[in-house]
Amino acid sequence: MPTVIPIDDPADPRIAAYVAVRERDLAGRGDGFIAEGEVVLRVLIGGGARAAPASLLLAENRVSRLAPLLEQLADDAPVYAARQAVMDAIVGFHIHRGILAHGRRPPDPGAGALLAALQPRSLVLALFGVANHDNIGGIFRNAAAFGADAVLLDGACCDPLYRKAIRVSVGAALKVPFARLAPGEDALALLETAGFASLALTPDGAEPIAGLARPARAALLLGAEGPGLPPQLLARARRIAIPMAAGWDSLNVAAASAVALHELTRSLLR
Asked: Which fold has domain 4-104?
């Protein structure tokens, strides 16, 4: 087990990455991110994450329980421990889970390179304007659960490695490969070049998704709640819908992603 370094002073420069967590979440962390909670930490350490922790900050009463997991840490990842009151003062609020990790985000390969690296039969999600962190986290969790290969995000989508998004995804945002579309990049042209059929999920879709014969390379397009997908994308994509009861036309986007991914993968998962 690595040496646990006690922290008694909230101003200790060694834990600068954890100071004022919420404020820095909003401002952005550049090439870093904060992960929270035991479930996410288990993904980050030995759970197939595409990133590794640079350090940990734990409440003192969490250390012994996590000892077997901490043995898997790299030698250059320090483990800091503090009394609950000190930890709360560092992060700026009561962190009842008592478990934080600071990591370095994996490099963004670019949308084109990510698509080119996928297998001949692949399923990706392409998200447009999904700015709610709970929805992003839920979509990444669903992507992992149903075996999606990658996620593309336009510039209006929020950061999948925002602390809350990682937590809601139960660590899936650290595992599922993703790339951000460059400003002005034509997502559908990019997908077409890579051999992907674009399936736009929309309430007025012309085809029900149930029983859809999925192309070998398929991209499920999802838009923000309310406005949905931009009209210029809908005009160029194959429009599909989830059939619903009379008088109701839509689901929360994360819930809709789960239904659609199930339909697109159930023959394989069976």
From this structure: 60s Ribosomal Protein L30; Chain: A; (3.30.1330)
